Amino acid sequence: MRRIPMTSRRGFFRLLAVMSTALAGVRTAVTAQAQPLRPTPSCPDAPQPTPRQTEGPYFKPDSPRRESLLESRISGVKIVVAGVVLSTSCQPVPRALIDVWHADSSGAYDNAGYRLRGHQFTDDQGRYRLETIVPGNYVGRTRHFHVRVQAPNRPVLTTQLYFPGEAGNGRDPIFNRDLVMRVQDAADGKAATFDFVLRS
């Protein structure tokens, strides 16, 4: 049996090492292509500030801090509203104050106490989540939420949020289509989303 010269053996093993490294690189590239990349959150190039609207006659200061406005003796269709607070430079606004108040399912506001009133703060990514009920209508207005949003040490944005497809939207003199939430049915009620944009 013919022996392979030592120099040839060294060359052979050197070639094997190079080929193994190359194959490992190919395997890594294939694996990377097989794993889908995480989607990058989209954001408009120049997001417009959320429109301001009237505060209305029923705002009360010093609402309790809570993310759920559901209490005993409150009836109605449950809804969860979630979203983020952004600046006009498309950056999340952490610790932004969100104060919400609205009518009950029959269209009445609690002006003696704090039913269906509360405030919370966005998290480090500017996110918020509110659990409440779908408000009723009252004379002259379509269905809506009242909201005050404020970045730390910045002016307050006072506005309102509306529901899509409401018959009263076309008759409400201050209705604004830019303030309509995205609403869909959920297992235990409804789910809505809305992102607020504050002036930088």
How would you describe this protein?
There is one protein chain. The protein is an alpha+beta fold. It folds into two domains: 1-37; 78-198, Aromatic compound dioxygenase (Protocatechuate 3,4-Dioxygenase, subunit A), CATH 2.60.130.10. 14% of the residues lie in helices and 27% in strands. The chain has one helix and nine strands, in the order αβββββββββ. Strands 1, 4, 7, 8 and 9 form a five-stranded mixed beta sheet that branches. It has a four-stranded antiparallel beta sheet with strand order 3-2-5-6, with no helix packed on it. Strand 5 and strand 6 form a beta hairpin. The longest helix has 29 residues, at 6-34. The chain is globular.
The CATH architecture classification of the largest domain is Sandwich
CATH homology group of the largest domain? Aromatic compound dioxygenase
Which percent range fits the helix content? 10-25%
* Shape designation: globular
- Proportion of strand residues: 25-35%
CATH class of the largest domain: Mainly Beta
User: How many domains, as an integer?
Assistant: 2
Distance between the termini: 82 Å
| Secondary-structure element series | HEEEEEEEEE
Return the CATH topology of the largest domain: Protocatechuate 3,4-Dioxygenase, subunit A
How many E-type strands? 9
SS-derived structural category: alpha+beta
Number of helices: 1
What is the fold's blueprint, element by element?
Blueprint: H1 6-34, E1 78-87, E2 97-101, E3 117-121, E4 127-133, E5 144-150, E6 156-162, E7 182-186, E8 189-193, E9 196-198
Parallel strand pairs: 1-8, 1-9
Antiparallel strand pairs: 1-4, 2-3, 2-5, 5-6, 7-8
